[in-house]
């Protein structure tokens, strides 16, 4: 497995950013197009999410940064999918930018 991290600084407080990301992951299909068996386990107190699927896993953390916040997604890709790393990074960055502006 190969790990990489995508970080996105946004203008929202950590609470607001986490609720937006949580809504995106529970109601949106952005990540499900990569793996339809995707399941998310949220920890609202720590503002984290464990994402598990048949093809990859990830951990999402929302951390306060003053009045704004930082969303960090650490993706664990199998070696067979490593050639798609840059595509996954770009997709995650675009998804976060779209929903967190």
Overview in brief:
The chain is of the alpha+beta class and about 100 residues long. It has two helices and five strands, in the order E-H-E-E-E-E-H.
Please give the count of helices: 2
Largest sheet: 5 strands, antiparallel
Order of helices and strands: EHEEEEH
Helix content: 25-40%
- What percent of residues are in strands? 35-45%
The global form is globular
Could you name the CATH class? Alpha Beta
CATH superfamily: START domain
Instruction: Provide the CATH architecture.
Output: 2-Layer Sandwich
The radius of gyration computed from the alpha-carbon positions, rounded to a whole number of angstroms, is 13 Å
Structural class: alpha+beta
Which consecutive residue ranges, at least 5 long each, have pLDDT under 50? none
Quick check: average pLDDT?
A: 91
| Order of neighbouring strands in the sheet with most strands | 1-5-4-3-2
State the end-to-end CA separation. 31 Å
Counting structural domains, the number is 1
Model description:
With 101 residues, the protein is α+β, with helices and mostly antiparallel strands. The chain has a single domain, classed as START domain (Alpha-D-Glucose-1,6-Bisphosphate, Chain A, domain 4), CATH 3.30.530.20. It is 30% helix and 38% strand. The protein contains 2 helices and 5 strands. It has helices spanning 14-27, 85-100; strands at 2-10, 39-43, 48-52, 57-65, 68-77. Strands 1-5-4-3-2 form a 5-stranded antiparallel beta sheet, with helices on one face. β2 (39-43) and β3 form a beta hairpin.
